[in-house]
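Design job #97: recover the sequence.
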């Protein structure tokens, strides 16, 4: 799981009347032969393996459409599974060679980069080496367990692991993909990719990226799969309310908005000339993420008292009741990984002011004349940070502020620009409490990447770890690390439930909601649409065209 928040900034756009006809909408939602779509976050960079590339919108607008990947994530019945992609000629095989896990990838002989050069095993070797041994890498999980990649046969990549890794299917795919060694080797990869790149191994090529405005994708004529049908422009509209108005006005033909209150209410009422899909069965988990190294949250009793001061069910119902989502999530695993989690682990943390009082007093706190808890002359003042311009998160903070005040806590809201929060403050540990969502990039269960003590960002690792919460709880690392190494789903489920219970007892952070996925699109668009828990509504973008 990558530590990614669907954050927004603030922007204004003009809008035509919301009652414009479908014909008018189609005309406005195009630029020449291009389909114009809304994107509510602009990624910081396009160096997908670098620390600057932690935003899901980078994957949804560019990476997923230009980077080849070994596995697709598809739905079979009610579950999501891995399916070998057209990058490989056959299902990759796993075997034990000389006591070590070995995975063999037979590359599709038709697979080529946009310049016509074949995709080879050297691309797998280069990708692994950059992630495992490079500097300023977003997340090396899994790749750091690889001992080497044999590229002696250009058509076959043989990957040998130093330690068993059950999540191997998530590598050379997800938010990374496979990089072109013949283009990037010997260059400064970050400099070559940070502002976009002209090559591709997917159905689209990035034609242009105008910072602060838009990204334009054009069909990749060299793509060996089904060719993209249209040129696509992602217009950056970084305020959800403005983006929603642009959609209703026909200025953009599809959006994947965060579930703001007005969007939820509009879907409930119905939107003319539009279709929608929404679900709480997501790869998202929004929570109150706690910096356990920062006072007063370095005390377990304080963290537990804080949790008992909040009515999470009431909060979730206020936010998402219109979508039929009324209950808080009770695991730090996202809903699509519920089979590997104890979905009731955090259920005991319900509003209970008696519990608050007993825990706070046991931790040495007393209420002052203003009814606020105080210890050693310091009040129980908590600063919460989230992303600016997000009305739903602002409402969440206001509800929390009111609930916590009744329990004797003073919550101070100090929201930040997304780039500052995720790029600097969280990695540096410069926060007490943060409200954001984690979003999965693979189907493999496991929270080690964001919660194992070895992944705490420090000066020694160039602050590249994703354990922003500085979680370091006795007994937690073992089951989380074991999940990563296991190939047995039953064992993973047992370990995941055990880890959930350890996390809940220590109250390391407080899960809130599944952050429902919402997709909206104009009826003037044809092609397969709907939600995808990893690659969003835009997963089948190459098949979209105007009717």
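Job complete. Output follows.
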């Amino acid at each position: 799981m990558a530590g990614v928040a669907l954050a927004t900034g603030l922007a204004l756009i003009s809008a035509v009347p919301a009652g414009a006809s479908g014909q008018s909408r189609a005309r406005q939602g195009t630029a020449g032969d291009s389909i114009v779509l809304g994107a509510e976050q602009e990624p910081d960079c396009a160096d997908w393996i670098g620390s600057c590339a932690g935003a899901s919108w980078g994957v949804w607008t560019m990476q997923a459409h230009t980077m080849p990947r070994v596995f697709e994530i598809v739905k079979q019945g009610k579950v999501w599974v891995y399916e070998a992609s057209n990058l490989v000629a056959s299902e990759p095989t796993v075997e034990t060679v000389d006591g070590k896990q070995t995975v063999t990838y037979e590359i599709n002989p038709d697979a080529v980069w946009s310049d016509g050069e074949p995709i080879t095993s050297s691309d797998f070797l280069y990708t692994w080496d950059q992630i495992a041994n490079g500097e300023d890498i977003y997340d090396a999980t899994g790749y750091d367990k690889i001992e080497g990649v044999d590229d002696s046969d250009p058509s076959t990549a043989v990957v040998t692991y130093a330690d068993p890794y059950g999540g191997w299917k998530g590598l050379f795919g997800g938010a990374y993909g496979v990089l072109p060694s013949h283009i990037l080797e010997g260059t400064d990869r970050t400099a070559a990719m940070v502002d976009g790149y002209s090559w591709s191994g997917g159905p689209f090529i990035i034609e242009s990226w105008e910072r602060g405005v838009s990204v334009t994708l054009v069909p990749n004529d060299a793509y060996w799969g089904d060719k993209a049908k249209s040129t696509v422009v992602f217009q950056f509209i970084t305020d959800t309310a403005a983006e929603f108005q642009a959609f209703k006005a026909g200025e953009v033909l599809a959006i994947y908005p965060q579930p703001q209150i007005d969007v939820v209410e509009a879907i409930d009422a119905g939107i003319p000339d539009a279709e929608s899909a929404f679900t709480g069965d997501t790869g998202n988990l929004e929570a109150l993420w706690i910096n356990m190294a920062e006072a007063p949250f370095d005390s377990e009793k304080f963290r537990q008292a804080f949790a008992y001061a909040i009515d999470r069910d009431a909060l979730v119902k206020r936010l998402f009741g219109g979508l039929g989502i009324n209950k808080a999530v009770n695991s730090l695993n996202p809903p699509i990984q519920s089979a590997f989690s104890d979905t009731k682990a955090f259920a005991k943390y319900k509003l209970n002011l008696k519990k608050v009082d007993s825990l706070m007093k046991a931790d040495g706190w007393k209420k002052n004349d203003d009814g606020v808890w105080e210890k050693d002359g310091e009040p129980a003042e908590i600063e919460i940070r989230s992303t600016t311009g997000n009305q739903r998160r602002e409402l969440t903070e206001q509800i929390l502020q009111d609930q916590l005040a009744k329990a004797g806590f003073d919550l101070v809201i100090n929201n930040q620009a997304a780039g500052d929060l995720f790029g600097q403050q969280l990695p540096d540990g410069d926060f007490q409490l943060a409200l954001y969502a984690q979003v999965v990039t693979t189907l493999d269960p496991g929270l080690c990447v964001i919660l194992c003590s070895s992944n705490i960002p420090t000066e020694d690792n160039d602050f590249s770890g994703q354990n922003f919460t500085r979680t370091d709880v006795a007994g937690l690392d073992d089951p989380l690390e074991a999940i990563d190494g296991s190939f047995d789903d039953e064992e993973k489920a047992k370990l995941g439930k055990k880890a959930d219970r350890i996390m809940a007892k220590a109250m390391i952070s407080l899960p809130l909601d599944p952050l429902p996925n919402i997709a909206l699109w104009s009826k003037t668009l044809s092609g397969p649409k709907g939600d995808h828990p990893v690659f969003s509504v835009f997963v089948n973008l190459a098949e979209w065209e105007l009717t």
